[in-house]
Batch of 2 targets.
Target 1
Amino acid sequence: MRAAELIAPLTFRLTEMAIDDPGPGEVQVRVEAVGVCGSDLHAYTEGAVGSTPNVYPMVLGHEPAGRIVKTGAGVTGLAPGDRGALEPALYCYHCEFCQSGHHNVCANIRFMSNPHHPGFFRELVNLPAKNFLPIPKEMSFEEAALAEPLAIGIHSVRLTSIRPGETVAVIGAGPIGLLTVAALRAAGAGRVWAIEPLAHRRELACAMGAEGALAPEEAVAEILRGTGQRGVDCAIDCAAGEETMHQAIQLTRNAGRAALTGIHSKRFVALDGSGMRRKELTIFNVRRSNHETREALDLIEARGELFRPLLTHTRSIDQIDDAFAIASHYRDGVGKMMIRP
C-alpha cells in the first residue's frame, strides 16, 4: 500500500508499506479521507508536537474515515463495505486512569500518528473493531473525518461545564476553534465570540455559530464592553500563541473558567499569575477527547449544514506537499484540508 511519510521538517515522501491481514478483533480499513490537524502542522513545520519530538520517518494523520475491506477473527456486527469514522487512540483499559474513566490520559496510550505509531496518511490500516464507528450512508467521508476534532471541541465544552446561556470567548478560529464554536452552539451556550487574526476564518466562525468574530487587537475591549465590563463566563484558548492564554485571563469574569485546548510550540509558557489569582479562575487543560466521537458523529448527522462550511479543500495523497503548504500558511481561504489516500 502507499503511504506518505514525513522524513524531515517540511518534507514528505511517498512510499510503499506492507500490511498484514487484520488480527483477531481487528478490522482492515481502506482510508478514504483524513483531515490535516494543527498538531500535524506542528510536526511538519517545527519537528515536534509540544515537547514530543518527531522520530523519522513517521506517518501523520489522525482524523480519518474509511471503509472496511477485511475483518479479523471474532469480529461481529461489522462487514466489508461498512463505512465509518476511525478513532486513533488505542487505550490499555487496565491502568488506574482508564479504570476511573479518564481514558484520554491512559498511562499506556498509543496514539496513531505519534512517533512509532503510524497514522492514517496511507491507503490501508488495521485497528481494533471498537475503534470503528459506523456512519450513515448519507454522510460523506469528509464529514465523518470531522468527528475526531469535533470530539475535542465537545470535550472542551464538557470539561469546562458550559451551561445554557453562558457567554464564551473562543481564541483562535482554526479548525479546532471553529468546531469548538459549533459544539458551544449545540450545547446551548449564550453569546459566543471568536477571536482570530485572519479575516476568512472570522467569516467561517460566524458561519459556524459565533455571534461575533473579532481581531485580537480589538477583542478585549469589545468583549468587555459587550458584557458590561464583567467578562465572559469561560474563555477557551484554541490557538496557544504567546499571548493568547494571557488574553483568556483578561477576558474571563471573576470566578470564571479558562481552558487551554491548543498546543503550545514551547514547553514553558508565561501566564498572568496575578490576574488568575485575583479573579480566582479555574484553569482547565484539554487532552484530546474522551469517548465523545460518537456524540460528534450524531451532531454532524443532525446538523450537517453547520459543519459543511469548514470543508473547503481536498487533495489526493500525491498532492500532500501542496496540501500542507496551503494549510501551514493559511492560504487560499483554507478551513479544513482533507487528504484522500
Note: The CA atoms of residues 183 and 247 lie 22 Å apart.
Target 2
Amino acid sequence: GFCVDFSSVLNRLDNVRPAPRGTGLAPVLLTTGGYHGTLAAVRALGRAGVPVVVADSDAFAVARWSCFTRSRVFAPPVRDKQYRFLDWLLAFGKRSRQRHVLLPTCDDTAWLYARHRDELSRHFHVSGCSGDAVYGLLNKRQLMAACREVGIDTPGTRSPSSEAELERVASAARYPVLIKPTSQVLFESRHKGKEVGDRAELLATYRRFREQRYGDALLAYDASVSWPLVQEYFSTADRSIYNLSGYIGRDPADSVLRASRKVLQEREIGVGICFERAQVHAELVQAVRALFARLGYHGIFEIEFIPAHGRFYLIDANPRFYGELAFDVARSMPLPLIAYFDALGDMQAVRALIAAATELPDAPRAHMYRVGFEMYLRTQRFSGALSVEQQRVWRDWQAAQGALSDAVHDGEDWVPSLIETAKRCYLQLRFPAELIQQTARHRFGFAR
C-alpha cells in the first residue's frame, strides 16, 4: 500500500518562515487552531511581531502550522467534560516565565475566560468583561430578551421549558421553523440547528436535540440551556446574512466597525463560504451600542442579521474572533491587535490602531473560503443539488470580484492551505454519508 508519514513532513515544514523575534511584546496564547478566525489572528499578530503560541489537541489544526506561530503546545480539548482544559491553562500560566495574553477564539473560551477572569488574571492578561455579560450574548434566549428590551428586531422565538410546553409550541407553530441550540458554549455536538417542516418532525428533532449534552460546568451555571429554541424561519437566510463586526470599547467613542454580507454558506445553517463588502448602517450601530450597554459588554464582536421585510432581524452574536476575520483585517481593521492591546490595558495603542483603521479604496471587495468553495461546487454539482447554470453563476461571481481575501490561502503562509485541503478531502472520503444522501435525494428523489 501507499503510505506517507505526514507528521514527519509537517515537522520539516515547522519553521518554513520564523515569526519575527525580539520585539519585546507580551506573548499571546490562542486555542482552537482549526478555526479560520484563529488562523487570521495568528497571521495578524505574528506579522506585527507578537509572539504567538497555539494550544490545541489536534496536531493538524491549521493555525499550528502557520509560519507566524512562534510555538505550539498540546492542550486538552476546550470542551473537555472533566474541565481539564481550565486546569491545564492555569498550570501553563503558573509555569510560564511571561504573562501571556488570552484572546477568545470560540464561544467556549469567550465564556470560560470571562467566567474565570479573576483566577486567570493572576497569570494572564485578560479582558475586563464579566462572565454574565459575555454569556448574555452567547445564550440566544438571553440575547433575544435583551434585544427586545432595547428595541432590536429578532425572529419570532419560542423557548419551551417542559414537554407540555413543547407540545403547545409544536401545535401553534407556523411551519417551517428552525430548532436551534440555546448556546454553543461547551455544546458537545456543535450542531447549529435544523429546519423542520411539520409538527411530528419538530417533536422528534427537538427531543433528539435535548439528548445532546452540554458540559457540566455550563449546566451547573445555567441548567435551562439544555432546552433548545424554536425559531421563525427565513428562506433568505442561506444566501443573504448581514454581518456587523468590529470593536466597541468601554468608552463607545473607542470603536471601529465594518459590515459584510454572507452570500454563500455550506449548509442551510453552516460555515460561511463567500462574503461581500457592505455598507455600515448607522441605526444598527446605535442598536448594537444599546445592546452592549444593556448587557455590560465591550470588546471585539460579530453580530449577524437577516434582512427581511425592510428590517434587520438579529439572529446571533459572537464576542470573539469569527470565520471571516481575515476579510476585516484585509480591510484595515486589525481586530486581533486591538483585542491584544485592550487585554493589556494599553488604550493608547488601541486608539492609535482605531485612528489608523481607514478602509482604503483598493481593499478587497469580497472574501471567500476557497477550499470550501471548490468542495461545495464539486459536491453539490455531483449530487445534483446545483445545476450547471448555478455553478457558472458562482464561477462568474468569483471572477468578477477581482482580488479577494481568503480564509486560509496566503501566499506568504502556504502550509495551512495545504493541510486544510488534505483534511477536507480526507473527511469527504472518510465520511461520505451526507454526499450520498444528497445525491440520492436530488438525483433519484429518495427521502432522507
Note: DSSP finds 18 helices and 16 strands in the chain.
